[in-house]
UniProtKB/TrEMBL annotation:
PROSITE patterns: ABC_TRANSPORTER_2
TM stretches of this protein: none
Nucleotide-binding as UniProt keyword: yes
Molecular function in Gene Ontology: ATP binding; ATP hydrolysis activity
Protein name as catalogued: ABC transporter ATP-binding protein
InterPro entries: AAA+_ATPase, ABC_transporter-like_ATP-bd, P-loop_NTPase
Length: 253
């Protein structure tokens, strides 16, 4: 079981603070939604917590090991990271792109062991990509390509999933499909930290919400305790009706 812990984590770009004194932990059995407006520092927080972006203060660890000191292969076996920007160097087939999720285990497209091949097939099936497996990625829609990248992360069989807006390019049906897959992954013993902009979707699935505003984590707790009309007004500047996990945005505050 994998646990990611950040303590007093801070990130700067020159003299500009991107993340300030962030504390959080995410472990097995948790589906944590990271919530906040554009520019709040969510992406920098994810990257710094995984050791992918230099922290200017504090530290982050995976199972007690300093993330900044982990070799890429070590990190990839513990955490599947799905970034916001997902460029592909060349238009490979869907199956081969998903197979890149097994790279940390020494596998590569075209030379998969039985365990690697099984992981790729499971990821293709879960993401509804079996019929597209032989297609080249430059022939796919944006939504289809988003599912390919998610399947690549899923194929790693890592103990923790960290995803930055994984449903941003998807239609409602496939948004629910991906969220259901994350929920199943967590129910099976994984942990997930996911940036989401759809508050209703986050409230429906998350077990916890971490709220960011102006580079800082301002709240961290169960959905029912942290999702309030007052917090929606404070963080997003909108008027909202909140009833438990149901939220209806009415307009600008």
């Amino acid at each position: 079981m994998t646990e990611l812990v950040a303590e007093k984590l801070s990130v700067h770009a020159g003299k500009t603070a991107l993340v300030a004194q962030a504390d959080f932990r995410v472990g097995a059995g948790e589906f944590v939604a990271l919530i906040g407006p554009n520019g709040a520092g969510k992406t920098s927080l994810l990257r710094a917590s995984l050791g992918l972006e230099k922290a200017n203060g504090g530290c982050a660890s995976i199972d007690g090991d300093n993330c900044a000191e982990l070799a890429p292969m070590q990190r990839a076996r513990r955490v599947a990271y799905l970034p916001q920007q997902r460029p592909l160097a060349w238009p490979n087939t869907v199956r081969d792109v998903v197979a890149l999720g097994r790279y940390a285990y020494g596998a590569a497209p075209g030379r998969l062991g039985n365990q690697d091949a099984d992981a790729v097939e499971r990821a293709l099936m879960k993401c509804g990509l079996k019929e597209l497996a032989s297609r080249h990625t430059d022939t796919l829609s944006g939504g289809e390509l988003a599912r390919v990248h998610f399947a690549r992360a899923l194929a790693s069989d890592a103990g923790l999933l960290v995803a930055d807006e994984p449903v941003a390019a998807l239609d409602p049906r496939h948004q629910f499909r991906i969220m259901d897959i994350i929920h199943q992954y967590v129910a099976a013993g994984g942990g997930a930290l996911v940036v989401l902009h759809d508050i209703s979707l986050a409230a429906r699935y998350a077990s916890r919400m971490i709220w960011m505003k102006d580079t800082r984590i301002i709240c961290d707790g169960p959905v029912e305790d942290t999702l309030t009309a007052e917090r929606m007004a404070d963080v997003f500047g909108v008027r909202a009706k909140v009833n438990g996990r149901a939220v209806e945005i009415e307009g600008a505050a």
